[in-house]
Amino acid sequence: MVVCIRTGIDYKNFQLPxxxxxxxxxxxxxxTKILSSIKxxxxxxxxxxxxxxxxxxxxxxxxxxxxxxxxxxxxxQILTNVDACIISNSSYAWWGAYLNNRSExxxxxxxxx
Length: 113
Hints:
This protein is of the alpha/beta class and 113 residues long. α3 (52-59) links the parallel β2 and β3 (65-68). It contains six helices and four strands. It is globular and about 40 Å long. The chain is 43% helix and 14% strand.
């Protein structure tokens, strides 16, 4: 399983004008809530981010977490090849998850949650 979280300054400062809640990024609580509900089902959870040091502050140290501080194309390959993805609302993460080659059966199982 991989968690792809965007925390970089360009992502945080992006706003949509004229809306009650103009920020478009997912709050970190969303990621931590999802992880806490499923972490017993997965070992070796890979965490990728545009700001890996901030991701480490959000998720903390855990023997099951593997932080990947690699080039974006390597992180993209990880997204396309893992069993499950928890992704930020970014086109980069979406395409990586969309192009993932996991089986239809596993995808249906995850979507039914």
